[in-house]
Amino acid sequence: MLCRSLLVLLAGLLLVQAHGVDLSLQKRQVAAKSYPPCGTSPPFDPAWSTFLSGALDTGADITACGNSKTWSLTYDDGPSEYTPGLLDQLDTVGVKTTFFVIGCNVANNPSILRRAYQAGHQIGIHTWTHPSLPKLTSEQIVAEIMWTAKIIRDITGQTPTYMRPPYGDIDARVRGLLHKMGLKVVIWNRDTDDWELQTFNPNAQNSSQVVTPTSVRASISSWIASPPAEGIISLEHDLFQLPAQIAGETLQRVSMAGFNINTVASCVGTAPYNNTAIEVIFNPAIASSLSKAPSTTASASANSTATLTASKSPSSSPSPSAGSIRASLDWSIIGTIALVLLCSQLDVSNAF
Q1: Number of domain units in the chain
Q2: Which of 121, 126, 179, 237 is catalytic?
Q3: Domain range spanning residue 237?
Q4: Which of 36, 128, 153, 249 is the most exposed place for a label (fewest CB within 10 A)?
């Protein structure tokens, strides 16, 4: 009887340990890797110099989606704590949309990005720190794109083909660099201006704010009533609470109006991932060059960056390797087997 009790106890502990190993490994996979800090321009790696030479292609931007009954809802600046609520509503309606994400925000919310990707939504690049690209050097532009592409790839396994420049700011030089990197540039033809709602105060007296929830809803109503012949790519945001809430309302209204809601890639009819020159840079043979850039260690703080590249931060404390953790689990299994054999032997002895 004692043997059986010990076996039950040991089996329970083994299950707990196995679960703990799984969670521990997942946490270490994030914590042991590093990315540039938020708030400053990310470093340029010489391995990316290939994008700076040669002629630049200044092809057209994507601004529309199919036909008058097609609508591509796009969300910028996330992921944030408000993105899951929007994802819940997208799940309920059963449609796919496009998220243009900021690398720094991805670093702080990797699980939210993973959920959006696994749900079938398109993930696009929106730079690492959300700068106006025409104001940057070419090296800075490439670095903003590469670090964002890298963190998206590390989380999803995919390198985005589509990107949106912050504020929609773009010129011939920026466009040429982005196209040389193999990226498709997406703008919009309908702007909700919902980002201004982050400062909306419903209790303010005599407010001079032009953009309000009422004005955003009125814009959506007019677009639903008179859509352009080339279809709609609308700009919304999921970084702040009120814009994300209005975005959820817009989703419901556009769906109920009978529009075909698509990702931008579906509108254009090309693959959303891995059709870029960036993928060559991420070849394992040369990916180690990314580890030379200065970085920070991940933390749970909203002001720090979760880290997902191959280099370990100098400030991070050493932790057991995956092999040593699994070895510990293996010895637990061996101990369990030994106890089973011992109990079996005792049962046989007692039978005589």
Answers
A1: 1
A2: 237
A3: 46-199+209-290
A4: 249
